[in-house]
UniProtKB/TrEMBL annotation:
Gene3D superfamilies: 2.40.128.270. Residues 23-129 form the DUF306 domain. The lineage of its organism: Bacteria, Pseudomonadati, Pseudomonadota, Alphaproteobacteria, Rhodobacterales. Residues 1-22 form the signal peptide. This is DUF306 domain-containing protein. Keywords: Signal. It holds the Pfam family META. InterPro entries: DUF306_Meta_HslJ, HslJ-like_sf, Hsp_HslJ-like. Transmembrane segments: none annotated.
Length: 135
């Protein structure tokens, strides 16, 4: 299904070009520490990695995910995630669904060192992550 609002936002972000904050995200890998203000704990490897070419990939706890993203300043738009179709225990599947749904709501980011805060269109913090690939 097409996402006309996401496509329009992506076109706008691409037309505006990048900024210093946006340049801080590509090439980094993150694991969630809080989601919807609740501590995030998982027995599985949950992460998202932002690549230099505007693609992201990761794991929701059961399935591998991938998609595209665009940034401009502190604005970010993650395109719909394509995911493998593995089946896992219900608790893991629910956690993964929540992770993907939260990523879908993200419109802003703030990176401070090894901490990443993701917010929705109303500037509500929806996820906090820590960098896992830093030296």
């Amino acid at each position: 299904m097409a996402h006309p609002i996401k496509h329009a936002m992506a076109a706008t972000l691409l037309a505006l070009g990048g900024a210093a904050q946006a340049e801080m995200l590509p090439g980094s890998e993150w694991e969630p520490t809080k989601m919807q203000a609740q501590p995030f704990e998982s027995a599985r490897d949950v992460f998202i990695r932002f690549e230099q070419d505007g693609r992201y990939f990761g794991n929701g706890g059961c399935n591998s995910i991938r998609g595209r993203f665009v940034t401009n300043g502190d604005a970010i738009l993650l395109g719909p995630a394509a995911a493998t179709m593995m089946a896992c225990p219900e608790e893991i599947m629910q956690q993964e669904f929540g992770f993907l749904q939260t990523l879908d709501s993200v419109r802003q980011f703030d990176r401070s060192g090894t901490e990443l805060t993701l917010s929705d269109a109303a500037a509500r913090v929806v996820m906090r992550l820590r960098q896992r690939d830093w030296d």
